[in-house]
Amino acid sequence: MNIHIICVGKLKEKYLKEAIAEYSKRLSKYCKLTILELQDEKTPDKCSLNEEKQIKIKEGMKILKHIKDNMFVIALDLKGKTLSSEELSDFIKDSSLKGNSNLAFVIGGSLGLSPDVLSRANFKLCFSKMTFPHQLMRVILLEQIYRGYRIINGEPYHK
């Protein structure tokens, strides 16, 4: 299974980079993981709704350039479906069984994802009704994917 994380914005914080590196190392036992960081667009203070829309469109175009036809795209979106850890594990397992061996999880920038990216998504996933920083969301996502593989393989970790 190939897991692709396509995300907007560069990680700057050392503790987040270390967490990403740790989960990437752990996941290497289960899948081929690639993380693609795309440059975010600068959002001016007191940005108008039209400016926000244009920023999301620009970031969306960058994202879509990296989505291949054979990818099953999971967009992280507040309006998406909420899954438990067990359900995400089943989702990953079922995707593999259905021949979707290239899962692409997409994390937008601070303003979210463009309508074009959301329409390209095969599935929209919501982790919580709460809002998380998109950089921290990477760590949360990787941890849940790792937990999912541990569940799939009947290995201790999940309680």
TrEMBL record:
InterPro entries linked: Alpha/beta_knot_MTases, RlmH-like, tRNA_m1G_MTases_N
GO CC entries: cytoplasm
TM ranges: none
Reaction(s) catalysed by this chain's protein: pseudouridine(1915) in 23S rRNA + S-adenosyl-L-methionine = N(3)-methylpseudouridine(1915) in 23S rRNA + S-adenosyl-L-homocysteine + H(+)
Main EC class the enzyme belongs to: transferase
Gene3D superfamilies recorded: 3.40.1280.10
This protein's record includes keyword GTP-binding: no
Source organism superkingdom: Bacteria
EC number: 2.1.1.177
Matches recorded under Pfam families: SPOUT_MTase
SUBUNIT field: Homodimer.
NCBIfam families: PRK00103.1-3, tRNA_RlmH_YbeA
Sequence similarity: Belongs to the RNA methyltransferase RlmH family.
The name this protein goes by in its record: Ribosomal RNA large subunit methyltransferase H
Originating species: Clostridium acetireducens DSM 10703
